Amino acid sequence: MTRRIFLVRHGETDWNLAGRLQGTHDIPLNDLGREQAADTARVVERLSGGARHLDFVASPLSRAAQTMAILRAELGLPPDTFRRDPRLREISFGRWEGSTWPELRRRDPVSLAARDADPWNFAPPGGESYTELSTRVLAAIGELQGDSVVVTHGGVVRAMLHAFAGMPPAQAVELPVRQGAVYLIENGAFELAVA
């Protein structure tokens, strides 16, 4: 991959703060999340040397779309003129969405043990696996035309770091993905940058 991807996880939500699995639930940013979105604009500007020439695409879930709108406004660009691609939405946790990991360990220990044994290929009840997530994300990324800012979710960041930076699946699935940071993917590697 010769293009550069400025990969941004959406800013914090109240469910992030509570440790709840959001998945496909549409949870808005909180105050800190909006600040983190503004911070990422400065990082993108610094790393790109001028963001006006970049392509901008985001997950349609409000926490990602809000992050992108704030980022673009901070860059002096029209906030809402970016593409939204549903293939960049978060991994579906199915019936687990809204729960915390400790709640799931008490309520569904058998499924959690199966996930622990093979987290990349495991799909929660009614949800999807990282393998399935990767298929749709790679299709979306394959359509990018040049250097791009992609605002998305923790699971998508993990899938992309595996696919484009060679991070092993077992390491990627457990990676704590930062909010308010930019993951620059370029030439088969990635760099984590913060404001």
Automatic annotation (TrEMBL):
InterPro entries referenced in this protein's UniProt entry, alphabetically: His_Pase_superF_clade-1, His_PPase_superfam, PG/BPGM_mutase_AS, PGM_Phosphatase
Name used for this protein in its record: Probable phosphoglycerate mutase
Active site: 10, 90
PROSITE patterns on file: PG_MUTASE
Pfam families: His_Phos_1 (PF00300)
Superkingdom assignment: Bacteria
Binding site for substrate: 9-16, 63
CDD domains according to UniProt: HP_PGM_like
GO cellular component, one term: cytoplasm
A GO molecular-function descriptor: phosphatase activity
